[in-house]
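Quick question, first post here. What does this chain look like in 3D?
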Amino acid sequence: MMEMLSLNPQLPLWNLAWWQYALIALAMTHITIAAVTIFLHRHQAHRALDLHPAISHFFRLWLWMTTGMETRAWAAIHRKHHAKCETAEDPHSPQVMGLEKVLWQGAELYRAEARNTETLEKYGHGTPDDWIERKLYTPHSAKGILLMFLIDVALFGPIGVTIWAIQMIWIPFFAAGIINGVGHYWGYRNFACEDASTNLSPWGILIGGEELHNNHHAYGTSAKLSNKWYEFDIGWLYIRILEILRLAKVHRVAPVVRLQAARPLVDLAMLQAVITHRYDVMTRYARLMNAQFRQHLPQDDNVAKLRQWIHLEPSSLGSEQRATLARTLSGNDTLVRLYQMRQELTEVWSRSTLSREQLLAKLQDWCHKAETSGIEVLREFSLRLKSYA
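> Answer (accepted):
Ran it through. Tokens below.
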């Protein structure tokens, strides 16, 4: 059948204009992007939504033909990235490996980690393990790519080779390179996460919404990646359409920050509100610290680096960086107190071994210290904490 198609010069698709071929290539790569962000990322890796079996399998089939990626490997590597972000164990951190390596060798880094059986066993749970996955998609990933090549050539003739080549480089460059590389190196940040994730653009269209990478790292299990009113996540648009058609069910989205009149006492309701909105809390605390740094220190390249370091956990800094930061802060009691209070505040949600009562005691102690510190911005910040609903 394919031989007949490839030899038939009367096929209507053979006579398209160049821009029509370009649109077809763009549409096909966009389906691949949608499959990655909706199926692999939000559905498989983070369980933010469920998909109807028919939609789920269409995405699996399409990814098999257009990328050759295995669902288990992709989900495992991405989960490990979140668990070990910006450390030596991160499979693709530009902060550790350098931007150039991740940008241009992202696919190679992915393939190397996919051969790590420990990663697959530890992080690859809950992914498809049916007959077709075991017998076709996983052991014969290259055959899917070959099938896509034959389909493109049969439908479009010689130009099909070019369309196929574009399909093959799209995910390695945009997902493995741009998102994993530039998305942890350059852009704007809505949330002061403990990693270096950034939003590349407020309009997540070309890469299916994955451009909003800082938002994703702040709320990893959210099916929606946009957060501000001016941000657009086309992947979320597709999910909403699937949900309306009853082909998807969303489990979680990022919480919307709500404020109320400040509580007179630090209670369990306030503890829960602060933990729920911890990324908004830390983002506002980061702005507070940046403003104080600008006020108390000269503005030069060294201070610009320090302003990045103060928002990271001390364990993620090198020994020289920690020493430089300590020397700079030591001459200013206000900055020292602000930095110490930041570390103490993060313990309210990072100390998972503590009971709710112990965490509540920590939050009560933090607010008391802030309000009696003699530092006005800390007192005001404590009052705002009591306003989270």
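The beta strands are 49-51, 203-204, 232-233, 248-250.
The longest strand covers residues 49-51.
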